[in-house]
């Protein structure tokens, strides 16, 4: 029987049902025969980490900002983006896309200390996002990741809980097969996942299929194990980086993900 830590009994899906359901979601792709000579894309190099603030202001500025950025703002985020982070949140995973139409990103976890200053807590980690980049108006099948600030409250995977503090649903329904956009194998991509609260009901297993905004707006947008290529809408991290993130996220700190191309996040 699947194990759901810290949450009600989840909705269970068989592998076949999952694959069918994910055709309208961000995390899977219809399996296709691999090219005759598939090319595995190299993982994007992580950008240099922003220095942790050591005084009343941080050392990173967003475009258009007067130098330096206030310590109460996360490096790389502009005032409009920062304002979307809830007041009660003290953990923010920032996924900064390389460009509006690019499918590589850099990911950093920030934590707010009691003085209100945001410090880097983990990362930077290289990541992939959707094949065609980013959008403010995500729809199923558009091959773009949604831009915005979204809650992170539920996790799961095919493999046992690696020590997550978020509720974790271990379920064989997280199995996936087939190939990605570059012919790379998808197997193991859902060994661990974190559900991004885009068009889903919070507090349920990531496998839950209810879409409050309707199926046409997509769903099933997760942070999952990187398979070496772009995703349908998800964010993917190296396996060990994702396991570190799972152990770091604390539901008591109301964690969120802030995601989008760098130019958008800097607004």
From TrEMBL:
Q: Which UniProt keywords apply?
A: Lipoprotein, Signal
Look up keyword Signal and say if it applies.
yes
Q: Where is the composition biased (Pro residues)?
A: 32-47
How is this protein named in the record? Lipoprotein
Ranges of compositional bias, category Low complexity: 48-64
Signal peptide limits: 1-20
| Organism, as annotated | Streptomyces gulbargensis
Q: Where is this region: Disordered?
A: 31-84
């Amino acid at each position: 029987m699947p194990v759901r830590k810290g949450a009600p009994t989840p909705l269970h899906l068989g592998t076949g049902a999952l694959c069918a359901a994910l055709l309208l979601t961000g995390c899977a792709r219809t399996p296709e025969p691999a090219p005759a000579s598939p090319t595995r894309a190299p993982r994007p190099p992580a950008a240099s980490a922003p220095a942790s603030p050591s005084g009343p202001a941080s050392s990173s500025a967003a475009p258009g900002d007067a130098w330096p950025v206030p310590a109460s703002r996360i490096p790389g985020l502009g005032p409009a983006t920062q304002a979307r982070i809830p007041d009660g949140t003290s953990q923010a995973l920032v996924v900064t896309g390389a460009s509006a139409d690019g499918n590589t990103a850099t990911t950093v976890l920030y934590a707010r200390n009691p003085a209100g200053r945001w410090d880097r807590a983990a990362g930077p980690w290289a990541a992939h996002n959707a094949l065609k980049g980013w959008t403010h108006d995500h729809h199923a099948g558009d091959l773009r990741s949604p831009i915005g600030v979204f809650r992170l409250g539920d996790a799961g995977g095919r493999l046992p809980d690696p020590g997550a503090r978020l509720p974790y649903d271990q379920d064989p329904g997280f199995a996936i097969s087939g190939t990605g956009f570059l012919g790379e194998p998808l197997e193991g991509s859902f060994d661990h996942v974190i559900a991004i609260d885009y068009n889903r009901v919070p507090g349920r297993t990531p496998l839950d299929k209810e879409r409050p905004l309707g199926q046409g707006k997509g769903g099933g947008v997760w942070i999952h194990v990187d398979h070496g290529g772009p995703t349908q809408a998800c964010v993917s991290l190296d396996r060990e980086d994702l396991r570190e993130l799972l152990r770091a996220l604390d539901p008591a700190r109301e964690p969120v993900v802030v995601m989008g191309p760098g130019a958008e996040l800097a607004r």
